[in-house]
Structure to design on (70 residues):
């Protein structure tokens, strides 16, 4: 994935997401991971998608992702 920005939710939690092919895209796709995984699981799939005109966003669920510890 090309970037891993973050945003702050209304309740103050910082969440990450991944994005690719954003600039100049006319379509968007949002990918979700399963409950026990994280957004990085899509890294091997996304390069095989031939959707050059589509921005791809991979959502990182609360309590998931790199650096998360319980």
């Amino acid at each position: 994935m090309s970037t891993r920005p973050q945003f702050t939710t209304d309740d103050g939690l910082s969440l990450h997401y991944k994005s690719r092919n954003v600039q100049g895209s006319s379509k968007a796709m949002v990918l979700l991971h399963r409950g026990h995984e994280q957004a990085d699981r899509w890294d091997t799939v996304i390069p095989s998608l031939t959707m050059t005109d589509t921005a791809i966003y991979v959502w990182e669920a609360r309590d998931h992702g790199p650096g998360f510890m319980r």
In short: The chain has a mean pLDDT of 77. Residues 6-59 form one domain. The radius of gyration is 13 Å.
